[in-house]
Amino acid sequence: MHIAIAGNIGSGKTTLTGLLAKQYNWQPHYETVDENPYLNDFYDDMQRWAFNLQVYFLKNRLNQIVNIRNSGKTVIQDRTIYEDAYIFAANLHSMGLMSTRDYETYTSLFEQTSSLIQPPDLIIYLRASVPTLVNQIQKRGRKYENSIRLDYLHRLNERYEAWISSYKLGKVLIEDVDSVNFSENPEDLRNVINKIDAKLYGLF
To answer: What is the pTM assigned to this prediction?
Structure first.
């Protein structure tokens, strides 16, 4: 099976990916943030590097999905290929940080790519308010994230809500992370595990 965790920057995707991988003995596939050669440049000059960054993410995500489907194992993935297109690229275009020419080229490439892949068996969407996102981002202390603006996170949240409400390619589990702490509260983790079990192995 292929399980994927979706959510805004700082929503807790990586943390939950690790916890669920350990709980279920699933193979985790993490987003390769520290190895991304465009991120620092992007946060310094979004307009110049937006297209390059999104194409890099798309290439990496496709590689991940091919490896997942070829592995024969149950894999849990940190972030989905759909978020790159429907959230981040679309938002960059709407903010004037990606030209229409580049956005149309990127969208065409994404559509061709997504037509060749199978969607995840389950998407776990981590819903978080902007204050929660900011708190989590500050806790992990990544230097290149210091310049992320509140209105940028808010715009992303709006796009996440629009995307997840219209997603029809597979099963979805929505978790409100404003009121839970998976890493420090075992009961919160147990509750989400019970919901995942019901989605993946329940009768309905």
So the answer is: 0.90
